[in-house]
Amino acid sequence: MSSPSQEENGINSSGSGSGSGKAVSLFFHLLANQRTGAYEAVYVLAKFQVLNQLKLGNIQMELENWYGITSFGWGFSEFVSFDDLRDSSKGFLVDDTLMVQVELEAISTTKYFPS
Question: Where do the segments described as Disordered lie (predicted)?
Answer without folding.
Answer: 1-20
